[in-house]
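Bumping with the actual sequence this time:
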Amino acid sequence: MTNLDKLVRPNIREYLSCTNARTEQPTGQSRQIMLDANENPYNKPFNRYPSDSQEELKTQLAKLKGVTDNEIFLSNGSTEAIDMCYRIFCQPRVDNVVAIEPTCGLYRQFAAFNDVEYRPVLLDHDFQLDAIRLLKTCDRHTKLIWLCSPNTPNGNLLDTVEVEKALKTFNGIVIIDEAYSDFSRQQPFRERLAEFPNMIVLNTFSKAWANAAIRLGVTYAQEAVIDLFNKVKYPYNINQLTQEQAVNALKHRYDIEDWIKILLLERQRMMKAFESLACCEQVYPSDANFFLARMKDAQGVYDYLTEKGIVVHNCFKEPLCNNCLRITIGSKAENAEILGILRYYKPTK
């Protein structure tokens, strides 16, 4: 990998070199009177700004995930971390990023917001990555490569060997979005941080951890990269209520494991049931909490389900996803309802 400092945007690098952010804390005192942040003394505990370092949450998360506190960055959802990757590394109208296609639309969206060229590289018909094709799309101004594994909307894992090729060959930052990795049995790249100084791994509390409402994303990387995120982030970016709920969720991780087991069984049942539906042509393999189904008339099925109060993701306009719907695994009752409705579906055409 190119020297990390050279990958950072020039204006960000210049700014960080002349700042020395620090947090003033009185030491050696049992009682602390904090009068430095213009806070209101009433309405405790909500009158105080939350912990900016999120130490308790990071410590608990590090123990569970097998990393150190200094290899974790917490964000306001994964969206904040995605945006920060552009803000830290990509100079607008100069640099570019390369991404697989189809994949999560946020990578393209934030490239547009940050005025950075976005170069998509089509996966093969099995939704697999060709690292050589991906790397040929890069040039000296390519700062980031975006990979999502398990990928969305198709749900399969990217070939580990191909991902490793990208990590070992590319001179910039490779970002692997593992939002759905808890639903897979494959070793996550998060556990291989020591091997790849140019790797950033994204995760979230929204999927397996069933805490989408608290908007908490997690970024894993080597300490030098995480240090950049901490210096550029908004102050107090994770509110106190989110931190408390996340700590509470980590205390109930065995409940999470039970939920995952149930969802995996339901995924298997739903995929098999969809294969038998008259309106379905193909069900693709999945390592996520959803699966991709090619329908005979995706728009017709989508409209029919919507009329019945059931919303699925219509991705038939995305590359390689002609006539496809992405079906998220719901509760047993929800899954039974959608199957019951679709068994009676008759095309209007």
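The tokens above came from a reply further down the thread. The mean pLDDT is 94.
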